[in-house]
Amino acid sequence: MLLLIRGEESAELLEPRKTKIGVLGLGSSIPTPPEGIQAELIVVRTFDELNEPAVSAAVRGKIVVFNNDYITYGKSVIYRNQGATKAAKLGAVAALIRSVTPYSMYTLHTGQQSYQKGVKNIPVASITVEDARMLQRYQDKGAKMVLKLHLHSETFPDTTSRNVVAEIKGSQKPEKVVIVSGHIDSWDVGVGALDDGCGAFISWYALALLKSLNLQAKRTVRAVLWTAEEPGLKGVIEYDRAHKHELENFTFIMESDEGVFTPLGIEYAAGKKGGCVIKEIVKLLAPINATYTKSYDSVSSDITIWAQQIPTGSLYNKNENYFWWHHSAADRLDLIVPDNLDKGTAVWASVAYIIADLKDEFPREFNDISTLSNVKLIEKLKETFKQKYT
Ligand SMILES: [Zn+2]
After folding, report:
1. Active site residue 49
2. Which has the least CB within 10 A, 106, 133, 138, 381?
3. Centroid of ligand 1 to alpha carbon of 155 (angstroms)
4. Mean pLDDT of each 10-residue bin along the chain, 390 residues long
């Protein structure tokens, strides 16, 4: 995959007053020329606003600032993902995206973005919620805004990274597999403790825990730490390709990629019957109050590629503030509470072990989503979740 290393990044507002603006380049953004880009700013709240005739006619030669109010991560992240392309189509020279977060202490949040084939690639970076709002206020007052932007990065040749795999072979049906997983890559800012160090940790330690208790289930329990999730689920897509021949043997696949705060139970995409089994299993987690369940059409990030194909589950945890830190320099080890990791490991190990040790096969059925064919649905889910989680 393409390897980019972040270089010096800066932005200075020159008009209507001189002040520094914090910027953080987005994944796969091209750099500015060495001398930077100096241009007028135009602020929009939404793509609809960008496409209003008077606005779109004024975009050429300017830097477009997207000041989209956070609704949910899934709904707001399209501005980070597609903002540069939408602005470039109208002749913009760069784009600045308000960080996708419900809360800010002048925090910059990076993340993946995609250029569209045939559309000019322009540099794109995130700015803070505070600066996006300030620029909006200037525009609303009719002030002319000029900004100088430097985004430098170095591109290196493609390189190899690998999924990390460990397993405890099943005693009776070793070919059948239950997977616990998280992703091992993270953004360069911060250390990726929440996204997704803790998910990788509980997956690895679930196996260590089973091993230390000398528990060998009937089926194999496998931990997989996916590589290259952030640039677009690359590790899991390669794993899917390499394991096509044994997908029918994958009994249940779990991934934790939304933080490991206080565990509440299990989210699943496993249909009605599978849901019944999971509800019975989590009753055993009453001593740590992790007995809740939630049913979805697909769960978590990497493993959405198996929605409607293999039953999947994710850690249901008290993560309502997850996006305060997500993809920012604040995603540090300080956020991780050891007790939550212990409990998360306990949930992961218990659920994986019990499913792997079931006498009968885990039900292989899914929510009935009849409006789209399965193939179309899976494509749609993959696209949505690629945008939602990366
Ligand atoms: Zn993640």
Report:
1. no
2. 106
3. 23
4. 84 98 96 98 98 98 98 94 98 98 98 96 98 98 98 89 97 98 97 98 98 98 97 95 96 97 97 97 98 95 94 97 97 97 98 98 85 58 60
